Amino acid sequence: MQNKETLFKKTDSDSHRYNTIPTHAPRETLNGKTEKAWRGQLPPSSKYRRRKPKELDLLDDQSLIK
């Protein structure tokens, strides 16, 4: 079994451990909102966003996007 330090490599100001994941995933949709630019950045080629722009805005407002 892996320990917390291996699974959750980042630490916040309160010493809580966390991990990050990319906001993009393999493309599975065509012409959807998730493959457009969000805050001026397009997802990588042949990828789309995991979440809709409104959801990304909410996560970013909570400082959950790095």
Helix segment tally = 2
Average pLDDT taken over every residue: 84
Shape: globular
Order of helices and strands: HEEEEH
Verbal overview:
The protein is globular. The two termini are 28 Å apart. The mean pLDDT is 84. The strands form 2 sheets. It has a two-stranded antiparallel ribbon. It is built from 2 helices and 4 strands, in the order H-E-E-E-E-H. 20% of the residues lie in helices and 15% in strands. By secondary structure, it is α+β, with helices and mostly antiparallel strands. The chain has helices at residues 4-7, 53-61; strands at residues 10-11, 17-18, 24-26, 47-49.
Brief summary:
This protein has about 70 residues and is of the alpha+beta class. It has two helices and four strands.
Quickly list its features.
66 residues, 20% helix
Topology:
Layout: H1 4-7, E1 10-11, E2 17-18, E3 24-26, E4 47-49, H2 53-61
Antiparallel strand pairs: 1-2, 3-4
Region (Disordered): 1-66
Biased composition (Basic and acidic residues): 1-17
